[in-house]
Structures are given as C-alpha cells and as structure tokens.
Amino acid sequence: MMHSAPTATYRVQLREGVDFDNLARHVDYIAGLGMSHLYLSPIFTASTGSTHGYDVINPNQIDPTLGGRGAFERLVGAARQVGLGIILDIVPNHTAFTLENPWLLEVLRDGENSPYASHFDIDWNAGPLVLPILPEPFEQMLAAGRFSVKNGHFVFDGTRVPLADTAPYDMTDIDALRKVHEQQHWRLKHWEAERDVITHRRFFNVTGLIGMRVEDPEVFEDTHALTLDLVRAGLVDGLRVDHIDGLADPAAYLERLSQALPGTPIWVEKILVGEERLPANWNTVGTTGYEAARLLARALTHSRGIEELDQIWRDLVQEPDSFPQALTRAKKEILEFELAAELHQLVALAAAALQASPLAEPGPETLREAVMALLGAVPRYRTYIDSNGIEEADHAIVTRMSETAAMGLRSEVGVKAVASLMLSPDTAQARAFALRFQQVSGALLAKAQEDTAGFRWSRYLAANEVGAEPAEPTVDQREADQFLSGRTPWDMNLSSTHDTKRSEDARMRMVAISHQPEGFKALYLRACELREAAEVTPAWRWYIIQTCLAIWDPADAHLDERLRDHIRKAMREAKQASFWTRPNENAENKAIAFAHAAVALWRDALPIELKQLVSSADTLILAQLALKALLPGFPDIYRGSETVFLALTDPDNRRPVDWGTLAAGTLDSRIATAKMNLTRELLGLRKTEREFLERAASKVVLSPDNVLLRRSDGQRALIAGFSTDLPANIEPIWHTEIDRQVIFVGWDTEMSEA
C-alpha cells in the first residue's frame, strides 16, 4: 500500500526471455537509476507461447513460465531490499478464447449448466457457442475424414474439443459425427466465419480473446482472487487496470475493486480524447498517461514548420482527404469487415429493444444504417450509460451523435429511434443495447484510428500515436495550461509503452521533421529518384522515409530486417493493398525494397539533411525527457528508454534489453550517454525535491524555437527545456549543447533571491 505517489516507475515487459529470476538480477541497476517502483506486465498464466501476457487463461495462477509464485516472491524480496515497490498490470476485461482455458473447457463440456457459463460474455440466446477455429469449412473437413471422436473429445488435426458427458467415446462415421457435433453446446466453424457468426464478446476484433462479466460480483471474486491475495499479502503495492473501457460498468468495477483493496492506488488504461476528463465517479488515482505523451509531442512540434510540412506533403503526395475524412472512411470499413459480427449483434439488440416503439418501425437495413451512423459519430471512445441511466454530459454527447449521424441519411427516423435507446434507457432491452454499443464504440475508434487511418494518413507520423490526434499536431498555450492545471502527483506521465506506435525517441526523430521540413523534403525527393521508388505510391514513400529516419542507426545490423517486418505490418494494418487475412506480398516486397534502397543510399553517403535531422532530434529527445520527468505527476520509464531507444510498433518495441550494457554504462553514442545521465539526474532530483514538486504550480512556455517548463512554489522555481542560449538567471543542475541548442534543468536564481 502506497502512502505517497511514486517517484518514478520502470515498466517491464515480461516474457520473451524475461522472467522473475532474470529481472531480479537487475533490480540494483533499476533502483540505482532512481526508480521507486517496478511496473510489471501481467504475471498470470497465459496461452502457451504468449509474448505479452494479456491472453490470460488462468487469472488465479502466476505463470509457471515466469517462475511461478515462488520466483515472484523472490523478485519482490529482491526489489524490497533495494527500495522498489511493485505495480501490477491486471486484465479484468477478457481471457483467452482457447482450449487451454480451464474454465472455458468446462463451459464447452457442460454448456449453460457449467458454474462458469455466466463468467464469460456469451450470447446463449444465439445458440451454441461458436468456435471459429477450423482451417476449412466443417462439411469439407467431415467429407475428408478429418474428424473423429476419441476418449470423450471431438478431434481434428491434433485439436481436442471436450464433448458433453452423454456423447459416445469413439467413432469415425460421417453421419454419426455430424449428429454428435449438432448435439454439443458448441459449434465448430471455419475461421473466416468469425465475421458473421461469433456468439461471444471479443476484445476489439480479436476472436481469440473472450469478454468476462466482471460486473457480476461472483465473477469479480473468482477472477480477482489471486490479485486480491497478492495485494493483501503485501507483495503488490498498486494496480494498473487494462482496457477499462471494455467493461460493462467501469465506475462500479473500480468501486468494487477499491472496496476490496482500500488504500491501494489504481491506475486505468484510458484514452482521453481532446479535452475529455476522467468521469468524476471513478475510484482511480488517474490514467496511465497517454495524454502526457500527446502533450509532449505537440509542445515540441514546431508550429510554423508543421504548416510548411503540410504544404510540402500536399504538393508531393496529393492526399485528397483530411484526417477526419480518412477516419470516417476507416470506421465504415472496420464496421463492415473487422467488426461486422459486433454490428450484427447491435442490430439484433436494437431490433429487440424497439419492438412496439412509438417512434418508428425500422427494419433490419434501417437499423444497420442507423447503428453504423451512430457508431461513426461517437466523438470519443465511449459514453458511460449504466444501470442508473444517463448523466447530463453523456446525454448531450448522444444528442450530438444523433444529429451528426442523421446528416446525409435519406431518413433520420431510424437514427432517432436507435438513439432514443441510449437517451432514455428505461427498459432492460434498451440498457442491453446501450451497454453493448458503448463497448463496441471504443473498439471501433481504436481499430479505425490507431490501426487503420493512422497507417494510411501519413502527413506527420509523430502525431499518429495512441491517444493522439493526427489532425492536431500542435498545442496552444490555453490547452497546455488547462492540461497542467488538472494534474496531480499521482498521474503517470508516459512517453513509451509496449503499445505505442513509435518509441519516444523514434517519435522525436519524426518531430524533428517539423523543425526542418525542407531537409526532410530533400531526403524524400532524393529517395524518389531511386529505381525502386517507381513501384511504390507517393503516400507509402512518404511513410517509409519517415520510418527509416525514426530508427536510422548505421551500426544496427538488424535495421533492414526491422524495416521489412514493420512495413509488412503497416501495409496490412492500413488495409488498402494488403490484408492480414489476404496478404499481398508482391506489393509489400516492393515497398520493402524501396526502404532498403533508401537506407543503402544513406549508408553510402550520409546526406547532410539526415545528419541535421538526427542532430535536431537529439535536442528534442533530451528536452522531452526533461519535461516528462518534471511535469506534474511522475514519469513512467519503459524498459530500455532510460537511454536512447529507437523502436517501431510491436513486436519491434519489445526487443530484448541489454541490462548488462546499460548497467555498465558502455553506451555507444554521446546522445545515449547524455540521456542516461539526464535520467539519473532527474530521478535523483525527483527524490530530493519530492515535496517541492508535489506542491509546485506548473507553466509551459511555448514558442517555435524553445519550450520551457516552469515549476514554482512561490519561493523557488525550477525550469527545464531547451533554448538557443542558457538563460542568464539559471543556475544549472544539468545542461548540454547540441547544434546551437542548449537543453537544461536548473533553478531560477532571480526567484531564489526574491
């Protein structure tokens, strides 16, 4: 239990070679950086081969692949000896939809009679639980003799699905197998059928993750038993709740969790859009800090330079859409393809809720059109209509959604009728629709913006980030002041996570483009002269040259491989020329060849523009760290980013960290050493000046060529940032100069004298 906010957290991604005993060997180094807490990704037993741990199969067991409970307790003991607390990431929204999940196996065998049937978010009214796991259609596999019944299981290709107890034990006859299949609590389907026939709530569009009904007190107790035990045993000091917006009633969940663990700080993974704030009735100390990452990138973006870059991009790439237009198109496509199953479910729920409605008699196509239009009009991840009805703020949001959704439709009757279910959720059917709508809206925005439009609309990739807005790359003084005024010492300030599209330093490489737009233009045009460029569209060339800049390191032996893997992922996420379900390797290979040719050109003769952009980025990397560490709240450091960390989206940002090299301080560049030294200096300052930082007011001073953060308690003032010169009134704690820019942290001597 924490009595004061952390000084700094060090987020560790477990698995992929990092288990408890491995991590325990590095706690001295982590504590020596100035961290107060280890912040661990999920430790619960996950699917075989899991690389991240969010696909939990047993929430009440510590994963044996990490070392089990014994190794976890050894890690905690080692951490305590060096003064580190433990923050744990928990996953209440879903577990893995896999035959390894022991609770799910019981449900497959016993159906609705299983004591775990109500634990999972399954629509039993839609029929047996659909398992879309077949490599080919059922009847095709049946005719080919690929099914059998053996020892109480339905068997195919090495997969064993448990049968109800009344099923015969051994058979291969086709007609008998078909009959047995039809008698089960589940139905096997070809994996491509997931778009049409799934009967469980998914995590986003991931059919392999099934929603849990933690709003039910019994389910909450069963899924949180180990978590509660670890906290009560003094092994865990705080919790981070994954994907809070996926829950039926986040406020009620947080209240129940807080009551079970009084005094334990709880952070939530929540993306706040624009000037949105956390609901006042949420029992949490704050978010995990994506809004802080957004502020940092926007504050460090050159306001005039981004305008120049925009014009260059429009002239050279000729993108016809604004980002809102690109997002609207992406939302429609996601609903018609990736979230088609959720759309079908919502239409059915709306139809049931509108039976005998006095407002309209909408048919299935009218309802489909209305639901799509309303989902497309949601301006944030979700509203929070619950069993108590709808609050005034959400009522206003839904009203605006209804008005926006009706625009352009031939009739607004269907939209008004469907919106009424959320505006006046007076029946159980209306509340069921509103609940499901809210869970889907967040998945839609995440998939459409972060995972689709963000890969298509590539003007300035520094703004195409989790929790950011590509169309809003800069921040004005009013918005910055408003953001700072709402922060508390308990707010996390992150800049990199396992989910960010680019690591913090790769992002600053891209921010440098706004400071030198003509330099980037020259790099782009020179790359367009390459023979390989002719086979790649201008939009992808623009994306790829930014990406090459983001991770450019001539000493990286894996650079070409990393670019190859990222470009394949980016093109499949964009869902234009290539798709995860149907990859176009020819188009991908042409784009990859262009990327490889571009970096080969740079290796042959380093362009002066590239050298200048990297130098500008070095300034921004250190400035971002200084601002992040001293913003109201506390910094969350993603493992390895205490020094320069250039990475793209996962799995690139989950590559192993060489803690031995970091601890030895044998870093390979001036900027890497400078960032490590500044990290230690800032975290030391946070410890010695904890009380000052917790009470000090904050002000960011923004201008195109310098950004300064001022923390003052009326008696002393601490200033950090970068400028063309070290201000005469600053007594520096730390400073360095890069390319005629001074990055510094220091006390205001004029304030001290006053």
UniProtKB/TrEMBL annotation:
Pfam families associated with the record: Alpha-amylase
Per UniProt, residues of the Glycosyl hydrolase family 13 catalytic domain are 6-670
Q: What InterPro entries does the annotation carry?
A: GH, GH13_cat_dom, Maltooligo_trehalose_synth_4, Trehalose_TreY
Gene3D superfamilies, alphabetized: Glycosidases, Maltooligosyl trehalose synthase, domain 2, Maltooligosyl trehalose synthase, domain 3, Maltooligosyl trehalose synthase, domain 4
Protein name, as recorded = Malto-oligosyltrehalose synthase
What is the species of this protein?
Devosia salina
Q: What is the lineage of its organism?
A: Bacteria, Pseudomonadati, Pseudomonadota, Alphaproteobacteria, Hyphomicrobiales
